[in-house]
Amino acid sequence: MSSPRRRRRRPAAVLGLLLACAAALASCGYGSRADQVPAAAQAPAGAGRAKLSADSVTLGYLPNLTHATALVGVREGLIRKELAGTALKTTTFNAGPAEIEALNAGSVDIGFIGPSPAVNGYAKSRGQSLRIISGSASGGVKLVVNPQRIRTLDDLKGKKIATPQLGNTQDVAFLDWIAARGWKVDAASGRGDVSVVRTNNTVTPDAYRSGSVDGAWVPEPTASKLVAEGAAVLLDESDLWPDGKFVITNLVVSQKFLKEHPDVVEAVLRGTVRTNEWINADPEKAKASANAALKALTGRELEPEVIDRAWPSILVTDDPLAATLETQSRHAVAAGLLEKPDLTGIYDLGPLNRVLASLHKPPVTPAGTGPDDQGR
User: Fold this and answer.
1) Distance of CA 65 to the CA centre of its chain
2) What pTM value is reported for the model?
3) 252, 241, 270: which is closest to 113 by C-alpha?
4) Bridge-partner residues for 319, per DSSP?
5) Alpha-helix runs per DSSP H in 181-261
6) Pairing between strand 141-145 and 130-139?
7) Rounded distance between C-alpha atoms, residue 336 and residue 310, angstroms
8) Please, which residues have CB within 8 angstroms of residue 141's CB and are 6 or more apart in sequence?
9) How many beta carbons lie within 10 A of that of residue 273, not counting itself?
10) pLDDT at residue 169 in the model
11) Full strand arrangement of the beta sheet holding 87-92
């Protein structure tokens, strides 16, 4: 795949890696909130139906609109419905690297996660920890700024811009964009021609409101929350990519769980494919469902002006958009946050393609990251 930087004369970036701080972040409360969806969505489905090979499966995800498949699929019972008598358990995280830690520890079996922590987890385990088994979402990432302080892209020099976390997907996207403009920033400290301020998405609106940051490169709904605070969208990351598509959320599974419970994995995939169909068939109903899920998880629903702006920028998809992950990986290497990884085998799309075939849908491919992973 040709690099979006060459295609657009601006970097197409969105991959990030968490370095040594992953473990520390995992210990800071991330992932501590579990089973916070309506009880009806958590109970085993279909009394009297035989369970699959596992008594239960634990699904991890973030309370972000870029995890819409999880929000809606759990809320509406569309994933649970496919699990027969196997119980669905859920747990949520504030950041992807903490979810990888939980996956490695065995407290999460399958997770919705951004490309950066997925690649990082795979590379650090030398290909032993996880597999990407499906796509979930594209888009939904924006650079939003204080229009009183920043009017053009050149005005970012010398300003303070928030990203969600050191080495996360948006962090490396921004670092790569900065580098393409010829500016210098130390990736580890965030100091340089632009100050990169790592700030949890939950507090970024407060940081913007107080003036401690001048803008942020963030996913939805944080971007639209900032717009509601008076920020302006300076750049939509989708504009940096060929065809306007790039992976922002994938579905991963621990290799141990995949090996021991392939029937459960396929059942979850049937649920996610059905959920994406449901979302695309009635976007307005799906938007309301996602907002209700966010309220159940966080205690607050999004204001109409926020979710109405954010929702159309996110595309749910079964396709993992594998070629864009390869590009994102190169950007992480260029930022100095990752040694060049061998991504051969990171995808196992066989279970997904069996589900798609059963629904008379075309297959997806791993695009060069493992020719044997398509049909296993």
Assistant:
1) 9
2) 0.81
3) 252
4) none
5) 204-210, 222-228, 255-260
6) unpaired
7) 31
8) 14, 66, 169, 170, 173, 217, 218, 219, 220, 223, 236, 237, 238, 248
9) 22
10) 86
11) 33-34, 87-92, 56-61, 110-113, 247-254, 130-139, 314-316
Phi-psi group of 249: left, alpha or beta (phi > 0 → left; psi -120 to 50 → alpha; rest → beta) = beta
In the structure encoding, which two tokens stand for residue 30, read together? 């991330």
286's tokens: 């799906």
Tokens read off for 88: 């669905």
Residue labelled with tokens 């699990």: 83
Residue at 182: amino acid letter: G
Say how far apart CA 91 and CA 297 lie, in whole Å.
Answer: 10
Give the model's pLDDT for residue 293: 97
Which residue type, as a one-letter code, is found at position 148? Q
- In 3D, which of 7, 16, 84, 12 has the Cα closest to residue 47? 84
List, for the chain, all residue ranges whose pLDDT scores fall below the cut of 50: 1-48, 368-376
The tokens for 305 are 């002006």
